[in-house]
């Protein structure tokens, strides 16, 4: 296995499963512990992880879309199905960037809707569905993250209005604050909130508390949170105090 491929697999394992031991990574990759240790040294030099005693932990930060898309697919599909059931035909839907919004787009085929998005994968998914009026926001393309950002995107949003926004997140703090790891995406998310009647946060179990250093909004800006797992009591209290409905999704493929 080439070193570059090993590095990708190591980062994927750390980001999806948390800290990992050298011995575990060695078994997963089918290489010697010495090889894994050399890989960890290189990845630490690149600022992508931190070595700890006996293993490593990934640095928080921006993950390429292709990596995140393969993680917790069943959870995301359950959330997407429940979110899709909230929308009535004839309504307008604003879809954020991210993989859960993409899973939601897959649930919208055959519906009579207007879908507005800065998510290039959502656009690709729905482009051939003639029942959907599809609006692609302008902006600067972030290729690895399959999104459009910048002042053009924000200007477009000021000229539009949506019945629903389905918002993604990197993490939800116990106080109900919605966070993101990517500072450049935050102004676009805030513009989406202003352009929408109802704001629904899509958050799988890993997003409580998740990650993120940049605050997108507080719980007062949300109408509902759709998740697939029970949320800790402190977070639920903060959300409910702000009037946010916490909606528990069923198994994948159900509403």
Automatic annotation (TrEMBL):
InterPro entries to which the protein is assigned, alphabetical: ArsR-like_HTH, Carb_Metab_HTH_regulators, DeoR-like_C, DeoR_HTH, NagB/RpiA_transferase-like, Tscrpt_reg_HTH_DeoR_CS, Tscrpt_reg_HTH_GntR, WH-like_DNA-bd_sf
Gene3D superfamilies: 3.40.50.1360, Winged helix-like DNA-binding domain superfamily/Winged helix DNA-binding domain (1.10.10.10)
GO terms of molecular function: DNA binding; DNA-binding transcription factor activity
Superkingdom classification of source: Bacteria
Pfam families to which the protein is assigned, alphabetical: DeoRC, HTH_DeoR
Domain HTH deoR-type: 3-58
Keyword entries, A-Z: DNA-binding, Transcription, Transcription regulation
Official protein name in the record: ArsR family transcriptional regulator
């Amino acid at each position: 296995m080439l070193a570059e491929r090993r590095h990708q697999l190591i980062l994927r394992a750390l980001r999806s499963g948390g800290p990992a031991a050298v011995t575990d990574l060695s078994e997963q990759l089918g290489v010697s512990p010495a090889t894994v240790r050399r890989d960890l040294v290189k990845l630490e030099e690149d600022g992508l992880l931190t070595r700890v005693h006996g293993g490593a932990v990934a640095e928080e930060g921006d993950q390429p879309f292709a990596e995140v898309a393969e993680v917790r697919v069943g959870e995301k599909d359950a959330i997407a199905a429940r979110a899709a059931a909230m929308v009535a035909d004839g309504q307008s839907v604003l879809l954020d960037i991210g993989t859960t919004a993409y899973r939601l787009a897959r649930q919208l085929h055959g519906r009579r809707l207007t879908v507005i998005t800065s998510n290039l994968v959502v656009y690709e998914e729905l482009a051939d569905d003639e029942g959907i009026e599809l609006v692609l926001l302008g902006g600067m393309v972030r290729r690895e993250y399959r999104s459009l950002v910048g002042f053009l995107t924000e200007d477009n949003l000021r000229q539009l209005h949506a019945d629903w926004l389905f918002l993604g997140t990197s993490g939800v703090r116990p106080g109900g604050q919605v966070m993101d790891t990517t500072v450049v995406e935050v102004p676009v998310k805030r513009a989406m909130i202003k352009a929408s009647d109802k704001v629904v946060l899509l958050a799988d179990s890993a997003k409580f508390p998740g990650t993120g250093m940049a605050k997108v909004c507080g719980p007062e800006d949300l109408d509902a949170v759709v998740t697939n797992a029970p949320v800790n009591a402190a977070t639920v209290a903060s959300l409910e105090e702000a009037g946010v409905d916490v909606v528990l999704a069923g198994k994948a493929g159900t509403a």
